[in-house]
Amino acid sequence: MEKIISTTRRPDITFHATGEIYITARVARILHLDGESCVNVALDKGEYLLFSEHYDGMIGNHTGRCYPVNAGGRYFRANSVRLCRAILDACGVAGRAALMCGEAVTINGKTYLPVITRTTL
Fold first, then answer.
1. Above 70 in pLDDT, residue 77?
2. pTM value?
3. Is the N or the C terminus of the chain less surrounded, counting Cβ atoms within 10 Å?
4. How far apart are alpha carbons 8 and 69 in whole angstroms?
């Protein structure tokens, strides 16, 4: 017997080779994302940490800028080809990496979410 759906766990964040980043409501809530936020990933001791940077007024063109998918929703998308390619290379996959995030950690007053790059969904 073979399962039709191999896993029922849904990813927290998905990176596409085209530069699209899909961010779930859970991640958006933890990182306090809004229309004036940009996502980025830091590398600390071999661990990838997702975080957000907030810019008041958001003037100019920013890579990784978040925007809500629908009005009033907490599901966000962002675009950054450079960030997506770096994560895809770290995962050793091409095309798409659907990843889970660990428990939030606070470093110097900033919230970070560890991105689990060893296992893609």
1. yes
2. 0.84
3. N
4. 23
